[in-house]
Amino acid sequence: MMTSSDKVFEVIRRTMLPVLAALLLLAVSALAQTPATDPLPSWNDTATKNSIVTFVERVTRQGSPDLVPPAERIATFDNDGTLWAEQPIYFQLAFALDRVKALAPLHPEWKDKEPFASLLKGDLKGALAGGEAAIFEIVTVTHSGMTTVEFEKIVNDWIATAKHPVTGRLYTEMVYQPMLELLSYLRANGFKTFIVSGGGIDFMRVFADRIYGVPPEQVVGSSGKLNFELRDGKPILMKLPELNFNDDKTGKPVGIQMHIGRQPIAAFGNSDGDLQMLEWAKGGGGVRFALLVHHTDAEREWAYDRASSIGHLDKALDTAQAMGWTVVDMKNDWKQIFPFGSK
Predict the structure, then answer these.
(1) C-beta of residue 28 within 8 angstroms of C-beta of residue 19
(2) What is the rounded distance in angstroms from the CA atom of residue 134 to the CA atom of residue 11?
(3) Close Cβ partners of 325 (under 8 Å, ≥ 6 residues apart)
(4) Burial class for 203, CB neighbours closer than 10 Å (0-12, 13-18, 19+)
(5) Residue 148 predicted with pLDDT over 60
(6) What pLDDT is recorded for position 253?
(7) Using 50, 70 and 90 to split pLDDT, how confident is the model at 15?
(8) What are 193's strand-pairing partners?
């Protein structure tokens, strides 16, 4: 026999259960109608963006015939012109030029020695007339003769204050917002992202984690020779004025093997210097992805390719078109260039 309390609870149960069920259905319906957050909001909804999303879904979706184990989800990115801007000169070269000015009082002989004489007169074009040999000499002198710890501090101090000559922004602000999103999107889907650049490995390692979320051990780059020494009983590594490894062009696949030990399944670049890295990524089995950033937006960034000495893109562009690789048309594929907007 039901007591009066039992009758009250029974009434409440009969009354509230339908209400709760209705509220639950409404909540489920609302969730179903809420659009998923776009992981690439700075990319226009073009075939380029679709090719990226399709690739990621094919290699990460459970049950997909193209599923790739997380340990093999390796993606490599060039830096200059791919993750951040590179015009009017490579940013590391701008650092080296500033270092020449800072070191000039210690080298009176530079007043009569090229390429330093032209640099000290403010004639950048004249200084770089010597081509790669002149650049190599400038970088060698400004990146050696100190410990790795001293060099890191010098780069840190410079990167914190040095500004781009056109935009007036810090160089670390000249990163591409769409590529930052792409790095995060890949990592959210189990990829390990690496920087593989012709730039200096010790230079990039100073800021790569803070700017790109890429830790120092996942940065591959050109390097000078080092020498282990004991200074006042303390171990140090001295940077020597000798090239150890040039991580550019055919050197990139070699650098990937030496530092990573796995063939990437996705590679991203913007110039002929990246061609062999993209070929290496596409050369393995299974589903592979290669992407070139084509600088086509003179208004918001810079427009250049085949005729440019910085970020020269010629053979790689022809190869991409012939092989069906993804090519970013910066003007049409990107809603936004830099985090702060545009040039």
Answers:
(1) no
(2) 90
(3) 278, 282, 290, 291, 292, 319
(4) buried
(5) yes
(6) 98
(7) low
(8) 75
